Amino acid sequence: MGKKDSKKSGKKDSQLVLRLDKEERDAFVELCKDMDTSAAREIRGFIRSFMKQNSD
Predict the structure, then answer these.
(1) Per-residue pLDDT tens for 25-54?
(2) Helix, strand or coil for residue 37?
(3) pTM of the model
């Protein structure tokens, strides 16, 4: 018990599945690599920003 059960452990516990064109996905992943980041990090950042801008 302790950190393992904590929400602040940084462990993600849910997934979002989406479909997109393979070329578009590959280009996005490559651009993220070139920018020294990950596709997942950028998508999470987009979601947080979108929610903040559009919440009541």
Answers:
(1) 999 999 999 999 999 999 999 999 999 999
(2) coil
(3) 0.74
With a CB cutoff of 8 Å and minimum separation 6, the contacts of 22 are none
Tokens of 41: 């990090």
- Residue 51 tokens, joined: 């929610």
Between CA 44 and CA 56 the distance in angstroms is 20
CA-CA-CA-CA dihedral for 18, 32, 41, 13, to nearest 10? 50
Distance in angstroms (rounded) separating the CA atoms of residues 12 and 48: 14
Q: Based on C-alpha coordinates, what's the Rg of the chain? A: 15
